[in-house]
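Translate sequence into structure tokens.
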Amino acid sequence: MTEKQNANWMAAGMEAWTLGIDMWSVVGLRMMKIAAGGTAGERESRLMVEEKLQAMAELQTKLLTGGISSDPATGSRQVMRHYSGKVKANRRRLG
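Result follows.
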């Protein structure tokens, strides 16, 4: 493995770690909102499912139109960045 490839995989690992931390914060914030119940909890439940379906459809479009690299490390990083933006937006909204 070249030095550049190694650096790309290290960056991918750090992005995955950061995405995981952010994702668990959103899970906790959403759980509290849904557990509180009421209209806000119901709305959050629906929004959660709608957002996941939309993010998946957007990613599929990127994959089918060549918007994701065929290089494993680069493609992984692009997929994580796709989801990272969504997760960070939810963390800001819920926090």
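Note: The CA atoms of residues 54 and 60 lie 10 Å apart.
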